[in-house]
TrEMBL record:
Gene3D superfamilies: 3.30.70.20, AhpD-like. It holds the Pfam family CMD. It comes from the Bacteria. The lineage of its organism: Bacteria, Bacillati, Actinomycetota, Actinomycetes, Kitasatosporales. GO terms for molecular function: peroxiredoxin activity. Residues 45-127 form the Carboxymuconolactone decarboxylase-like domain. This is Ferredoxin. InterPro entries: AhpD-like, CMD-like. PANTHER family: 4-CARBOXYMUCONOLACTONE DECARBOXYLASE FAMILY PROTEIN (AFU_ORTHOLOGUE AFUA_6G11590), CARBOXYMUCONOLACTONE DECARBOXYLASE-LIKE DOMAIN-CONTAINING PROTEIN.
Length: 246
């Protein structure tokens, strides 16, 4: 599967409708890396308006704590294999109250990290929604002890909206805004150490079937360059090759 060439290339900013430029300008505080997202949505202006309106509510007008929101987004992006979304949010996670270990742990089995109970409730709810489109009673009860009704509804919608974004961008092969290094793997050389997944979970994943590495994206953004180089250096079997962008 080619995860590099976009199936529907983003529209050049010069051809965007004025309303899309205005939204991007007004949301600069959300950080860089959204030009290709907006360019993809520019193919469908009415849909873009609805999409971005919902995103604005969830990001700037919602009642859910920022930490809860980012945990749910990072977990969803990892589970759905969206390096675009995971890398963007991982890059800004420190400003949202997550330390590097916590950020990396959102892409690992939940029982491998000592999560605080409230964090674990959010992550378990996210997994349940992605797996079953439902939240089991015990997790719901735990969430309800801490979150208000409005926040509970918001969490459900957030996971749904993030899933929509991850699926859309992954399926359309929407590229990161800035060229980063390319990465390739050799499953024949992989020894299933899991070092790459721990180092760059938005790019690598271990197969549930054979434990060997699989590639979520072969041209991640430049913000992951250091992690990719480290993953290649740590790989015991030399299964990872990183080619720097020209």
């Amino acid at each position: 599967m080619n995860l590099t060439a976009p199936r529907i290339p983003p529209v050049s900013p010069a051809d965007w409708p004025p309303t899309l430029h205005a939204v991007l300008e007004a949301s600069k505080k959300d950080g860089p890396g959204r030009v290709n997202l907006f360019g993809t949505l520019a193919h469908h202006p009415p849909l873009a308006a609805a999409w971005l309106s919902l995103a604005k509510v969830l990001t700037h007008e919602g009642t859910l704590a920022v930490r809860d929101r980012e945990l749910a987004v990072l977990r969803t992006a990892h589970r759905l294999g969206s390096a675009f979304v995971w890398s963007r949010h991982a890059a800004q996670a420190a400003t949202e109250g997550l330390d590097p270990d916590e950020t990396q742990a959102t892409a690992a089995p939940l029982d491998t990290y000592a999560w605080a109970p409230g964090d674990l409730d959010v992550l378990r709810a996210t997994d349940a929604l992605l797996d079953h489109a439902d939240v089991p009673d015990d997790v719901w009860t735990a969430l309800s002890r801490r979150l208000q009704e409005q926040q509970l509804i918001e969490l459900l919608v957030l996971v749904g909206q993030c899933s929509m974004m991850c699926m859309t961008l992954r399926t359309l092969r929407t590229p990161s805004d800035t060229a980063g290094p390319q990465v390739s793997i050799s499953r024949e050389l992989c020894c299933s150490s899991g070092q790459c997944v721990a180092t760059a979970p938005g790019v690598f994943e271990q197969s549930d079937e054979d434990g060997l590495v699989t590639l979520l994206v072969d041209a991640p953004g430049p913000e992951l360059a250091a992690d990719l180089r480290l993953a290649a250096a740590l790989c015991p079997g030399g299964a990872i090759t990183v080619t720097e962008a020209p």
